[in-house]
């Protein structure tokens, strides 16, 4: 852990704070719902500060947990996965699918949604040392008994540095327009 902090500090000192886009090549495997949440965000580059890299990685991890679902999962699993990397206020505000709708529209039609790894960009919203705004988007493919459709999923979220025991970046509430 110590080497990581030294690396982060070195990148912060040597790198600049600029807007950055983190994308994953289209040849990357699709993140399946329920998969362990791993972040395909690479280490910070010369155009991404260490702090920005951590913000982008937090948003990427949240997207991997929230974007997809499977009819095979028990009701509420998707919400539980996402809340693990969210602030308490944002977790309480997260509106999932109610159990009757889940049973009828997801389980009843054998619906599964898979998402390509999300693209995460720093937005121009208010920025402090402990708060940033991000725009998150991913290609989502929904399969059910009626067929297959592809859509673009998009979220604008605030990401905050959680002080206290975790001391990590967490996804916060949805924001309008970055």
- Give the overall silhouette: globular
Query: Could you tell me the radius of gyration in angstroms?
Result: 17 Å
Helical run tally: 5
Terminal CA distance: 33 Å
Please identify the oligomeric state: single chain
Q: How confident is the prediction overall: mean pLDDT? A: 77
- Poorly predicted regions: 1-46
**How much of the sequence is in beta strands?**
25-35%
Main sheet specs: 7 strands, antiparallel
Count of DSSP strands: 7
Q: Residue share in helices?
A: 25-40%
Give the structural class.
alpha+beta
List the secondary-structure elements in sequence, H or E: HEHEHHHEEEEE
Task: Offer a concise description of the structure.
The chain is an alpha+beta fold and 178 residues long. The chain is 29% helix and 26% strand. A hairpin with a 7-residue loop joins strand 6 and strand 7.
Topology overview:
Blueprint: H1 2-14, E1 21-22, H2 50-66, E2 69-70, H3 77-83, H4 88-93, H5 99-107, E3 112-115, E4 119-122, E5 131-144, E6 147-161, E7 169-174
Antiparallel strand pairs: 1-4, 2-3, 3-5, 4-5, 5-6, 6-7
Helix pairs in contact: 2-3
